[in-house]
Amino acid sequence: MKSQALRDIATKIFADSKGLLAMDESTPTCNKRFSSVGIPQTEEARRAYRGLIVTTQGLGECIGGAILYDETIRQHKKDGTPFVKVLTEAGIVPGIKVDRGAKDLAGHPGEKVTEGLDGLRDRLAEYFQMGTRFAKWRAVIAIGDGLPSWGSIEANAHALARYAALCQEAGLVPVVEPEVLVDGEHTLEQCYDVTDEVLRTVFSELFAQRVMLDGMILKPNMVLPGLSCPNQKAVEEVADATVKCLLRAVPAAVPAIAFLSGGQTPELASARLNEMNVRFKSQLPWALAFSFARAIQQPALELWKGRDENVLAAQQALYHRARCNQAARRGEYSQEMEKG
Ligand code: 13P
């Protein structure tokens, strides 16, 4: 019964080749993005920006769910309409980031573990009452000299599984996000090996915690060379490596895999997702979708600059990126879409 309700939420989010919009930057992260383009770092600026996003005309045609942050879920449009209501009326399922951030992992220099399990049951109940139907928890795994350690993979996978089980108990679909970071000089092959080990460990822990795999969403990284690796790869190689890794590690019961963008340019993120669907869509047990933050929002943020007169142009840029990624889900994205 409950598992059917969870499946229905996931189906609704990804219907019509839609995907997720991550707009759940914590306050410090949102402020960092604002400061990089000269926008004041105030609560009102964050409210105005999130309002710009949720009121974008037509967004619900290509976005099935939006991930909010605790501050945002309590915010309203200027006329008093809660953002959650605006999203719901646009056919977009509201979701919420529920982790409390990645903190240094004791005994593991250079590694983090995501916190937030204490009191999570009560917070999930409140978020359900507020109208959310899914949640997100992000774990980060760094590749480096001797990293990642087994201890960090295991600790993060365990926390993800504990979180996911609590979400399902509360009637929320868990978005399980183990992010292998793109920073560093590592090769695509190293990213493949680490992502493979991380995903296998995550699914082993999800199984141990009795998480219903058909009522969750996986949010992984694409398999990429590190940003400082001299040997960057063509879109086709990234698509092949990523899908091969996922096919070997992700059970077929999972309804959808929605990638994070991880600092890729918006165009590359769309092109890589598109290539995966062009080459493999007919052979995959799960939907291959997107849950991008920067790769959907960045052009809009740069256009907005915190000014009212730029709102429409920013909304058009946001809608355009959402459209491109919907096309990428269908394997119908092309460079042509970026012209004009
Ligand atoms: P990016 O797409 O910018 O990597 O963000 C996705 C996200 O939600 C990180 O948790």
Quick structural overview:
This protein has helices at residues 2-14, 27-36, 43-54, 70-73, 83-89, 120-129, 150-169, 188-208, 235-249, 266-280, 294-304, 311-330; strands at 19-22, 63-68, 93-97, 102-104, 112-114, 134-141, 173-180, 217-218, 256-259, 287-292. With 340 residues, it is α/β, with parallel strands linked by helices.
Helicity, as a percent range:
40-55%
Ions, cofactors and other ligands present here are: 1,3-dihydroxyacetonephosphate
The spatial strand order of the largest sheet comes to 1-2-3-6-7-8-9-10
Strand content: 5-15%
CATH third-level topology: TIM Barrel
Large-scale geometry: globular
Classified in CATH, the superfamily is: Aldolase class I
Give the low-pLDDT segments: none
Q: Report the count of strand segments.
A: 10
Number of domains: 1
Element-level helix/strand string: HEHHEHHEEEHEHEHEHEHEHH
Number of helices: 12
Give the topology:
Blueprint (H helix, E strand, L loop, with lengths): L1 H13 L4 E4 L4 H10 L6 H12 L8 E6 L1 H4 L9 H7 L3 E5 L4 E3 L7 E3 L5 H10 L4 E8 L8 H20 L3 E8 L7 H21 L8 E2 L16 H15 L6 E4 L6 H15 L6 E6 L1 H11 L6 H20 L10
Parallel strand pairs: 1-2, 1-10, 2-3, 3-6, 6-7, 7-8, 8-9, 9-10
Antiparallel strand pairs: 4-5
Helix pairs in contact: 7-8, 8-9, 9-10, 10-11, 10-12, 11-12
The structure holds 1,3-dihydroxyacetonephosphate (13P).
